[in-house]
Design a protein that fits this description.
InterPro entries: DEXDc_RapA (IPR057342), Helicase_ATP-bd (IPR014001), Helicase_C-like (IPR001650), P-loop_NTPase (IPR027417), SNF2-like_sf (IPR038718), SNF2/RAD54-like_C (IPR049730), SNF2_N (IPR000330)
GO molecular function: ATP binding; helicase activity; hydrolase activity
CATH architecture of the domain at 121-226 and 241-343: 3-Layer(aba) Sandwich
CATH superfamily of the domain at 121-226 and 241-343: Tandem AAA-ATPase domain
Structural class: alpha/beta
Keywords: ATP-binding, Helicase, Hydrolase, Nucleotide-binding
Protein name: Snf2 family helicase, putative
Organism: Candidatus Moduliflexus flocculans
Strand content: 5-15%
Length: about 650
Amino acid sequence: MIHQEWIEWLETAQPNLKQHDETPEAADVSSKRCPQCGWLDHASVSECFRCGYNYLTDDMSSASFNLLRIGLPAPDIQATAFEEWKAFSHRVSPQPIAEFALRLQAEQFRLVRGFDRLISLHDLNIIHYDHQLQTALTVLNTMRGQALLADEVGLGKTIEAAIIMKELLARGLVKRILILTPASLMNQWQDELQTKFGEEFVIAIHDEDWQRDKVIASISRLRLPKKRQTPANAQENEEDISGALHILRQEYDLVIIDEAHKLKHRATQRFKFVSQIRKKYMLMLTATPVHNNLTELYNLVTLLKPGLLGTIRSFKRHFVASADARRPKNEQHLKTLLASVMIRNRRSDVNIRFPARKSAIYHLSLSEKEQQLYEHVSAYIREEFKAQTKHEFHLLSLTMLQKELCSSARAVKTTLEKIAAREQYPDDAKARLRGFAEFAGDITKNRKIDALLELLTQYPGKCLVFTEFLETMGLIRERLDQAGIAAQTFHGSMDLAQRRDAMRHFQRTARVMISTQTGGEGFNLQFCHQLVNFDLPWNPMMVEQRIGRLHRLGQQEDVLIFNFSMHNTIEAHVLDLLSRKIRMFELVVGELDLILSEVEDHKTFEHAIQDIWISSKDDDDMRQRFDRFGDRLTNARKAFEKVKEAERLTSELFEV
C-alpha cells in the first residue's frame, strides 16, 4: 500500500532577543593582600580564598587584647644550642640553577593577582562569550567558589562551570574533582572536558576509579548506605563498598552537580547525601531552580550556604506568598540574598544572537520490495526467531537490525549475514536469516536516498546528513557521486588527522557531509545550516545533539532540519512521540532533558522503545503500547509547562 508523501513543517521556538549596547559600569577593583599567604583579594571579602585567613579576627594583635583588658600568658622563648646553629650554618647549599628556578616560580606566584582576570582561557578550545566569563569571575571573586548556576537553557552553564574548574586548577587551588550528572550525560561531560578543556576524567565504574583525582559519577548513586553499613565496617569488606560509600569516604576540592533540580526536595536520599559530601567548593547547575514552589529554591541554596536564607519556617514566613507558594514576597530582600550565591543569565539579556530553527518531517513510503523486507523480517523476529532461539539472542543485534530496516537494504543484508553466522542459533533460524539476506541483496532502490536528492535540488547550500550505519553511509556516498554532488564521509573510526582533513574538505569543497552520530564532536560546523536525519536514533538526546552541531551560538543562518519518516514503521512511531507528545522541535536546545527527566527515573527513553518493540505480539499490540508510553510523555510535557509557569512567576527574583 503506497501512502501519500509530503513535507510537514513543525512549530519551533524562535527566541526573540534584544541587543544591549550599554557600557557596563566600571567594577570596583580595590584589593588587599592576605598577610598569611600573600593572596591578593577583593577589598570587600572577609576571608582569604586560598588559605581561609579571617580578616576580621585573625589579625587581632596583643595590643587589641590589652585594650580589651584580656591577659595573655608570657611567651616561652627557648634558645637553640650553639652546636645546632653551627650545624645549620654548614648545610649544603642547593644547586644554583635549581635555586634560581624555585625563586623564579615563587616570584611568578607572588605576582599573580586575585581573580581580576582569567589566566586559563588560552588553554581552552571553546568559543566563549562575555556572560560566561563574567559569571566565572563573579563566582570566583564574590561567591567564593560556592554557586548555583541557573542560566536559561542553551547559554552554556556547562562551559561556565568548566571555566571555573579550569581556573581553579591553573591556580593550584583544586586537585580532586567530582562531577555528578545524570547517567545519560556522563559521556557527554567526559567528551567535552577532554576535547574543549584538555582534562581527562574517568567515569566511575570500578572501585579503583574512585581513587582518581578527576571522577564523573551518576547522580543516581546518591543514596545513603543502610544504617547497619558504615565506612568503618565497609573497610573490612572492600568488595561490598558501593559507589555511595566511596564518595562519602573521599574529600573533594571541587564538586560539580549537573541537573541540580533533582536535589530540590530536602527529604530525599539525594539531598541528604550531597549535604554529607566533604568538599571545599561546589557548583550546582540547573536551568529550573523552581518547579513547584519556592522552598525548592531554598533547599538548593541551603546545600551551598546553610543558614543564608534562615530556617525553612522563617523563609516561608518572610519570602513566600501565602496565596501561591511559587510567588515571592519581600522580593528585593530575597533578591539581595540570592545574589550572593546564584547567577541566572537570560537570553533577553545576553548580547548574542541565536539563529532561528525550522524543522520538518518528510513522510515517505518504502518501495514495494523494501516494504516486503520490513514486514517479513519484523514478523519473523517477533513471532518465530525468539521462540527458535529460546529467547537467548543478542538484543543489541536485533535492535540494530530493526533500525536498519528503516535505513537501507544493504545495511540489513550485512547484519543478517552476521547473525546467521553465529553458532549458537539453530540451523532453521540461520536458513531463514540467510534467505532474508539474499532478498535484501536484490533490492537496489532506496526511497530515502531519492528523497535526499530531491531536497538537495530544492534547497541549495551545504548539508549535513546523519546516518547510524556505515553501510548506509557508503550507499549514500555512491549515489551522490553518481549524481555529481561532492560529498565527504565522517565517522568514528577516523583518527584525528583524518577528521580534520574531512572537516576541511567539507568546509572548502564538498557540498554534503555524511556523518555518523560521533561525527563532528569538537569541530565548528556553523558554516553549514541544513541537516537531514536520514536515520532516527531511538534516543532523543542524540537527536538534540545532532541539531546542536548546527543550531548553536555562532550560527549566522536559519537552520533547516529534515527528519525522514517511513510510513508504518517503528521509526514513524518514535518520531510521532518526539514531534507530537514531547514536541521536542518546539523546544530550545537544552529543554528536552527537563522533560525526559520526568519519565527516565527507572528506564531511559531508548530502553522503553526497545521494550515496546521486543515484547509486542503484533503491530496492533505495539501501537497500543506506544499510545500508553505517549500518554506518559504528554504528562511529562505538561509538568514541563508547569515549570515554565513557575519560572515566569519568579523571573524578577533572578534579574540583575
